[in-house]
Amino acid sequence: MNLDSETKAVELPDDHGTELRLWLRLLTCTTLIEGEVRSRLRERFDVTLPRFDLMAQLDKVQDGMTLSDLSKRMMVSNGNVTGLVERLVESGHLDRRTSETDRRVQFIRLTKLGRAEFRKMAGEHEKWIADIFGDLSPKDMRELMRLLAKAKGSAQRAAKARTP
Amino acid sequence: MNLDSETKAVELPDDHGTELRLWLRLLTCTTLIEGEVRSRLRERFDVTLPRFDLMAQLDKVQDGMTLSDLSKRMMVSNGNVTGLVERLVESGHLDRRTSETDRRVQFIRLTKLGRAEFRKMAGEHEKWIADIFGDLSPKDMRELMRLLAKAKGSAQRAAKARTP
DNA sequence: GCCAATTGCTTGAAGCCTAAAGAAATTGCA
DNA sequence: TGCAATTTCTTTAGGCTTCAAGCAATTGGC
């Protein structure tokens, strides 16, 4: 019996099962963690993940950011950010200021209250994440970082190839 | 100078920066790929990712599944599945049949049309995923699978500890 | 200066998603 | 049997998300 033809008979011409399983595992893993973080944010601080993420972006800068910057960094649509910011201004966490040189542009900043609350949440959040990844060794984490970077690069290459 | 105390001075008492960066990279990577898949499904087949996912679950079985099974497998809420199924029944892709032994239960199946369309989509989808992960070697993929499994286990452990 | 193209943001329609409350059916236990 | 607890599913209110269309302001080429 020819082992080679045997193998070919089992393997279909284009077998991409490995990639598919990898993608499903990646998705499951992220969904699981995201759900856990979402629950904890809700229970502990009564805040949603998108609001937390938006505040996290703003906490990194001192003098504010435009809506476009926010939507690029958060990888969500412009209209989405409009709504999120609106609700966070409403609740007193954010502050909008129209640019003086370009009246289309608005600079969004954390208010004093917003920054204080965010810092409090971020402290706990960081501990949750450390707990969630607690079973991974430093070496595991380094390796995972490296492979995810590679996967990200690969995905960006594929996305670019489709939309030149 | 004492190197040890030097190190301690730099490292904060609880530094969880690595875990946090890892989580952000995982999230970015998944969001990127998910967005790409979503776009392609929309452009090519005018279908949403949740609908595709739901049909993927149903394609795996012959004789249908209950709404509860679906919501567990998809890791989304019950009410969410109710709405998704409703729209897919509407469009002729799904078929509902009330259980004869328990009138609360409904078995959901793909229709002939639904299965045919799903198979067509799934074939292309698999190629997209293979392309998206194309830069990873088989060894990279094996290693990534292993580390993600470990991360998943760790997250499940953490989630369970919070909700006993 | 003029005006077409671009940029920054908002709006509207549609769909996705959750938590919580509730309706209907079944189960299990006294 | 009787009925309380549970299970399955739907509904509702609110928020998130996208895409496409639209408005207002700015820019750049002429």
Shape estimate of chain A: globular
Q: Largest sheet of chain A at a glance?
A: 3 strands, antiparallel
Side by side, the strands of the main sheet of chain A go 1-3-2
Q: Biggest interface in this structure?
A: A-B, 53 and 53 residues
Average pLDDT of chain A, rounded to a whole number, is: 89
Describe this structure as you would to a colleague.
The structure is a homodimer of 164-residue chains. By secondary structure, the first copy, chain A, is mainly alpha-helical. Chain A has two domains: 38-132, Winged helix-like DNA-binding domain superfamily/Winged helix DNA-binding domain (Arc Repressor Mutant, subunit A, Orthogonal Bundle); 136-164. In chain A, 70% of the residues lie in helices and 7% in strands. Chain A contains seven helices and three strands, in the order H-H-H-E-H-H-E-E-H-H. The first copy, chain A, has a three-stranded antiparallel β-sheet with strand order 1-3-2. Chain A is globular. Chain A starts with a helix and ends with a helix. The model of chain A has no long low-confidence stretch (mean pLDDT 89). The structure holds a DNA duplex (30 and 30 nucleotides).
